[in-house]
Every structure is written in structure tokens, then in C-alpha cells.
Amino acid sequence: MTIKVGDRVPDGTLAEFIETATDTCAVGPNSFQVADLAKGKKIALFAVPGAFTPTCSAKHLPGYLQLHDELKAKGVDEIWCIAVNDPFVMGAWGRDQGANGRVRMLADGSANWTRDMGLELDLNARGMGIRSQRYSAVLDDGVVTHLNIEEGGQFQVSDAQTLLDQVS
């Protein structure tokens, strides 16, 4: 079943490649519980079929980087980019795109959270395995307040400007 507006996102584990060690995070891949990450925060999230893919790299992620300050000004605490890739790939993509510190590059390596959301995309016939559908959402304390799911192969409703217009 696909998640919908008004639903609480499922808890699950996402991984992030941490560039600089802190008291709570070592350098390298660190695992986080979605419920803990989202608790008490307004999150703008978008999911892509894969890191370093054409639309994702040329349009989707760059749009959120460009509108970072405007999203924050509207009360967004964090921006998440989620893909069914490993945290090393997500970390490299974030470095390549200059996302560090502005967009959290979260890996759902085995697509478990994506499946729990009901937003998986089967690209086995194209040799790419199970991926995520392209979508965007606003979470308020872990509850979906806006959800924009793209039709197959499209990039029309999950862009940063659409989400910015929806955030209140």
C-alpha cells in the first residue's frame, strides 16, 4: 500500500556517509532511524531512482540546492534526498553536487524503507534492480502533509519549486 497524506512514515533505517566526525557520528556510513531523524522536525524530502542518473543530477538535486535557503525560511528544518543506493555512492554524489551541509544524502541500500512506503520501482528489466519512484514530500513530525509522486519517467511534480510552494 502506498503512503498517503496524513500517514506517519514507517520507521526504518537509512544510512548517511558522514564526512566529519562528531561526538555522535563517526566518519563514514552511519545508520539512523527515520523516526528519530524526523521527530519534532519539518522535513522536505525527495526521492530519486538513482544517484548520478541524468535527471536526478541535472535537475532534481540541483533544484533543492538552489532553493535551500527559501525552504529553510519557510520553516523546513532539513532537506533529505533518498535513493536506493549505498551510503558511499550517496556521499560521493553529495560531494559531486555540493550538497554537504544543505541536503542530507540518505541511502536506502536494500530498498526496505522505500518498500515500506509503497514507493518502490522495479527496474530489473533494465538491469537496475529495485529502485525508488521519483517523488517529494513534506513531513511534519513524521507525518506526511504533502506528497507528490511522479508518473513513470516524468519530472513535473516532485521538483523543489512545487514543494516550496506547498510548504506553509
Automatic annotation (TrEMBL):
It is an enzyme of class 1 (oxidoreductase). Its EC number is 1.11.1.27. It catalyses: a hydroperoxide + 2 glutathione = an alcohol + glutathione disulfide + H2O. Gene3D superfamilies: Glutaredoxin. The active site is at C56. Residues 3-168 form the Thioredoxin domain. GO terms for molecular function: thioredoxin peroxidase activity. Thiol-specific peroxidase that catalyzes the reduction of hydrogen peroxide and organic hydroperoxides to water and alcohols, respectively. Plays a role in cell protection against oxidative stress by detoxifying peroxides. This is Glutathione-dependent peroxiredoxin. It comes from Pollutimonas harenae.
